[in-house]
Amino acid sequence: MNNDKNKRITVKDVAAALDISPSTVSRALSPEKQHLVSDRVIELVEKKSREMGYTANPMATALKRGATKTIGMMIPDILNPMFPPLVHEIQQLTNRLGYTLTLAYTENNQELALEEIKRLIARNVDGIILASAFRKDPTVDYCLDQGKPLVLVNRVIDKQASDQVLVDDREGIYMLFEHLHSLGHRKIAHVAGPSDISSGLSRRHAFLSTADMFDVPTSDAPVVQTDAFTEVSGKKAMRELLEQHPDITAVVATNDLVALGCIAAIEEAGLQVPKDISVTGFNDMPYLDWFRIPLTTVSLPQAQLGDQAVRMLLSQIRKESDSSFPRKVLLQPKLVVRKSTGAPKTA
Amino acid sequence: MNNDKNKRITVKDVAAALDISPSTVSRALSPEKQHLVSDRVIELVEKKSREMGYTANPMATALKRGATKTIGMMIPDILNPMFPPLVHEIQQLTNRLGYTLTLAYTENNQELALEEIKRLIARNVDGIILASAFRKDPTVDYCLDQGKPLVLVNRVIDKQASDQVLVDDREGIYMLFEHLHSLGHRKIAHVAGPSDISSGLSRRHAFLSTADMFDVPTSDAPVVQTDAFTEVSGKKAMRELLEQHPDITAVVATNDLVALGCIAAIEEAGLQVPKDISVTGFNDMPYLDWFRIPLTTVSLPQAQLGDQAVRMLLSQIRKESDSSFPRKVLLQPKLVVRKSTGAPKTA
DNA sequence: GTGAAAGCGCTAACAT
DNA sequence: ATGTTAGCGCTTTCAC
What predicted TM-score, i.e. pTM, was given to this entire model? Predict the structure, then answer.
């Protein structure tokens, strides 16, 4: 079809073909400016540009208008199974609203994260959804400093300086703990996530305060620390835990991946889940139902997370400073009971 | 820090601050043109632009140069667990080479796919990696017609019209079949993937010809068809199969997700895997080791897939038409034996 | 080795 | 309702 040099068709070309001015073409093609143009011309232009295969160059538009209709999203790692669902959700939404989503990955590396955020901003994204924040995070500071619309998802920074939407870790941990407690568990440990990430810390706090609410003394609610939300870290931490507190009957892990690591360590020690030790996760990663030991966990309202995040970001982009800023949305997780928890042996 | 209006810093600003011309700044900052500038000025410019927080506007550069240093990648769906590893691989590579990867999703919808590819091209990506091709695919035609560098990964079109890198489906299916046959299976069925997608069809062909090689008559190697690479489709197809061929002892599914669906249907019928029926998958999706019935499957050389795809794409972008075009790279999968296969009952 | 000027493709004043 | 002009930020001739 386009046998010739595949030279880009421009407004100018369309204008020339119609013997009108480029501005008119531009206007005729822009929904917000169409009303300035006669219906006849609009039709003509639409027909001709379709014929010629004209597509506007978003670069040029962006350069001119200052807005790219692009939003950036930063996640730690696409291999972590908790992120694809969230990305999917947000991608769908932004797309529907006429925005293009650009992904960036921190690979759990703070320096890389900063580089990437700079790239995102250099590319003039209209706003950023950040799902990878540390409690102190230069990445966030940079966005704020640059005045870029920003929404934090799931992980937040210590000082509330930007819009954020998160899942109620307190409630999630409470439900998990309550579930275990009602099964009869009285010695429940926590394998905590990295303390420099808000969700790691807040789940840890939640665990401690929940234990207190149930009158479980600190000595019967030991906590070990991981340095990453991974299976490997979970396994290492669980080994430690088994050594120091062989009497525990249940473990609340900071998330699903860590929980898997815990299970690995428990089985390595010749024990069984849930017969000897019950284990819970957090996040409800995909395909858990198929697992050998389907995890009892807490599921995130991914759709709402995405919806709220996008909604807030757009309101920032559109400068609707209607409401009090910064805003904070707290979403409720849901308990999902599966087979990794059961009554304690001694009960 | 940047307390003022967060106005973008431009070459002009840097130039003004140094009382030199924008061109010089541009040259000093461009590795390819630095040699045209005195070392002293280079240093000055570098220092100053760092100080002022200058970052080039890629839009402007792209507009001027015609190249965006961006490559687009199209996948069906990020929720399909086979894609994140591939995306990750390719993202890492392109990033290392100074390119930014932009993802687009077909959501298994041909029309959406075409829209998305148009968007990608409108945004001036320098090249496209397509992992979502149908055997006849307007998406591919459009790229070709536009003269966009293009590499097909894993799924290809019928007429070999562009570079492609794929996994040897024949070999994969052969290994799976051989494994089952050596366990003693003689009635082996195939749950085939969509026939309008190359991998679905080629695995089907491979199954048939392998059965022939092992002297298994067609009647003992029945094939049922799915209309999608999903658990649901697999389940439906397997139900059908159980009804029509209750005597089969093993199933070669077109991929892991479909295999899961098969297992679901088998268990629904009151049978067990692998005791009553063995099942194999394809792709080796993440976390299979944790599954209740860890799938025997075939793993893809993701790293090589990504590496080859990027390598070929870049050679197109750089117009190194050194070698014969189009090129085709065939990569070898690896058999991964797990617990979903065993000796047949009657053996 | 450096500067001036033009232009990538688009759109928003400012005309008319 | 439409055309003219200028300019977004960059790079690249073409001068000097």
Answer: 0.94
Closest Cα in chain B, distance from residue A11 (Å) = 14
Those of residues 205-264 in B touching chain A at CB distance below 8 A are 260
**What is the enclosing helix (H) or strand (E) of B70?**
strand B70-75
Distance from CA of B216 to the nearest CA of A (A): 32
How many alpha carbons lie under 13 Å from residue A138 in its C-beta half-sphere?
11
DSSP summary character for residue B336: E
Q: Of the candidates B199, B133, B194, which has an alpha carbon nearest to the alpha carbon of residue B170?
A: B199
Average pLDDT for A18-37 = 93
**To the nearest whole angstrom, how far is the Cα of B29 from the nearest Cα of chain A?**
16
pLDDT single digits (tens) A159-182: 999 999 999 999 999 999 999 999
Query: Looking at beta carbons, which residues of chain A come within 8 Å of B294?
Result: 292
pLDDT of residue B323 exceeding 70: no
List pLDDT tens digits, range B26-62: 999 999 999 999 999 999 999 999 999 999 999 999 9
**B330-342 pLDDT per residue, tens:** 999 999 999 999 9
**Cβ pairs A/B, distance under 8 A:** 98
Mean predicted confidence (pLDDT) in A101-112: 95
Count CB-CB contacts under 10 A for residue A318. 12
* Joined tokens for residue A5: 């040099």
CA distance B193 to B228: 6
> Is B79 within 8 Å of A6 when comparing Cβ atoms?
no
- The answer on pLDDT for A5 being more than 70 is no
Distance of CA B178 to the CA centre of its chain: 27
CB of A109 less than 8 A from some CB of B = no
Domains of chain B: 11-56 (no CATH), 68-167+302-332 (3.40.50.2300), 169-299 (3.40.50.2300)
B101's CB contacts (< 8 A; 6+ apart) are B70, B71, B72, B73, B87, B90, B91, B94, B95
A85 touches chain B (CB under 8 A): yes
pLDDT band at A2 (very low <50, low <70, confident <90, very high): very low
State yes or no: pLDDT of B3 exceeds 90: no
Protein CA B132 to sugar C1' D3 (Å): 46
Least trusted range by pLDDT, from A37-51, B50-64, B77-91, B315-329: B315-329
